[in-house]
Amino acid sequence: MPVQDDGQTTTVLSLVVPSYNSSDYLHHCLDSMLPVPADVEVIVVNDGSTDDTGDIAQRYAAEYPRRFVVINKPNGGHGSGINTGLRHAKGQYFKVVDSDDWLTPEAFQALVGALRGLVADDSCPDLVVTNFVYDKQGKRRKHVMKYGNVFPAGQTITWDQARRFRSSQYLLMHALTYRTGVLREFGIDLPEHTFYVDNLFAYGPLALTRTIHYLDINLYHYYIGRPGQSVNESIMVKRADQQLKVNRLMIGHLPSRDVPLPGRLRAYLESYLGVVTAVSSIICIRTGKQEYLAQKTALWREIRETDRVTWRRLMRTPLGRVVNLHGRLGRRLTLVLYRIARRFFGFN
Hints:
By secondary structure, this protein is of the alpha/beta class. The chain has helices at about 25-30, 55-65, 80-90, 105-120, 180-185, 200, 235-240, 240-250, 265-285, 290-305, 310-315, 320-325, 325-345, and strands spanning about 15-20, 40-45, 70-75, 95, 100-105, 125-135, 145, 155-160, 175-180, 210-225.
């Protein structure tokens, strides 16, 4: 493993676990990281929990000193937990693991081994991509999001060498291990007390990445189905304001046309913005409230005012066309098509 000139082991990876009232599932999450290698730190950010989350985290820190670090802070939400973890991170790479999710132990060890090699040969790609599993409650067959059609496995490439993403394929937070310097250069500062900030984490800093290394391992288990989970459709409708807030911040992070950007990366960023805006549009329609229909119109107008080229491209996509059908009948048809797609693809 990499060793500094002073003989100390270099921390190759910081895993940050934002945790709020996670006592029912934090054990499962942290156990999946054992044994924690000597060059990895696990930072558990206890975000003002009122249950036993802090005590559970402290027990891991006591049993595995210098492997687990616990930071207790007042409640600030998921984004605040990530911000705090980044400020304290010593690792050359940075990954977020939500407290109700977990890692495949063998894949975790493989990731660490690969990062050691990348650090040792001084290649240090800006982004390491791994597969993640949609671990949906009650579903026997688990869908795995893989990226072998976009990135060749085991190689470090540039965005110009990447191939096209499929229409349903995106680099969600669960797939990303950033070089920590990229996040700090971007100056990521996720908003507090706001849900859905993982979209910002997976979007803004990506514009600074130039080199990517893909590992074809099923590392991350993204658990879906817990009652009250933020991605539950009914919860998203209630939190429409927060979805819209994140969507607008993403529009603000859309790189200017004056910024030189690899064509494949710009195309991906436009596509990802388009799908998040389509989700926001569906949520606005689902509220059934005139004020949110006006917000939906304003959202698309904001994209047009920010970058007319991107707006035109998104409006011509099937998603853009469907969510912008006019009138009451158009909105009804939008929801019918959305429900058909939800049943067919099985997403929340």
